[in-house]
Amino acid sequence: MKFFFFSFINYKVLNDAARPWQIGFQDPATPIMEGIVNLHHDIIFFLIIIIIFVSWILFRTLFLFNSKTNPVAYNFSHGTFIELLWTLTPSLVLIGIAVPSFALLYSIDEIIDPAITIKAVGRQWYWSYEYSDYVNEENEFLAFHSYILPEEDLELGQFRLLEVDNRIIIPVNTHIRIIVTGADVIHSWAVPSLGVKCDAIPGRLNQISFFIKREGIYYGQCSEICGVNHGFMPIVIEAVSFDDYIRWVQNKILD
Amino acid sequence: MSDVVKLETAPRDPRFPSTNQTMTCWVRYLEWKRCQSKDGEDSDECKKLRRWAYAMCPIDWVERWEEQQQDGTFPGPKFE
Ligand SMILES: [Cu+2]
């Protein structure tokens, strides 16, 4: 293999799993997660400006207007203009945040007619998946359990506590509906790179949908404390090309 | 071969626009049962409704309701 100087510029490794001491987001793979990341960055930008401005006023007040520099106290207690200013400005800022925030919120709730429905059932302590759009010769549905891979079975490069034996295979550029429910206690089905987190509640069916834009392997974890093995029921989604997905379904229903 | 795998699932139901889809599953199941008693098991319409019911409901739920139908303990409406 040839190695060109500067060829590292061509490499862009996307981050689809949690890493040690991470404080930022994982890289988005759906338009919704892109929206969440952008909204966060936009708000943090203005938040930092406000923090600097408020700290500046606070420190000026403390250092310039103390009892030493101003032995005689002022005797006024009102200032209509400044009170209007410091009431209206924050409310305008809040409205400015609310507009993009609601736009994003409602776009998350938007359900476009999906091509595939997958059911995710949280159990103590693993996830079961049902692809009941597909049946085999014996009229059995395509369904499987997804257990964590124990540490001693991991191969080099696999993630500890994140890898499972049966991954969910999903095609890219397709609208997916996930029906989430629990079979025993409340769990929560969450995948950060896809921007989804949905409680799995026994007796209730919750619907989420997403549209994966790139192939990759996305990791998530149960996000509602559900018992001793709560930390050991990860979620792995493998987003593949459409043809590979069809091939996978065919193989799965043949055996 | 590729006709085995068809990319088709229950459509979005404007009667149930929220995240909570519990009633979608229940109504889709009853619609399938009503169709069965009206047109018989093997009509294309009923087969479609069966697929949609199974798309929206956990397999465990449908199996439990089917057992209850057999035992006569099904809590929902009966279509004769
Ligand atoms: Cu759990």
TrEMBL record, chain B:
Broad class of where this protein is predominantly found: mitochondrion
Cellular compartments per GO CC: mitochondrion; respiratory chain complex IV
UniProt key word Protease: no
Alphabetic keyword roster: Disulfide bond, Mitochondrion
Entries under Pfam families matching the protein: COX6B
Location relative to the cell: Mitochondrion
Protein name, UniProt field: Cytochrome c oxidase subunit
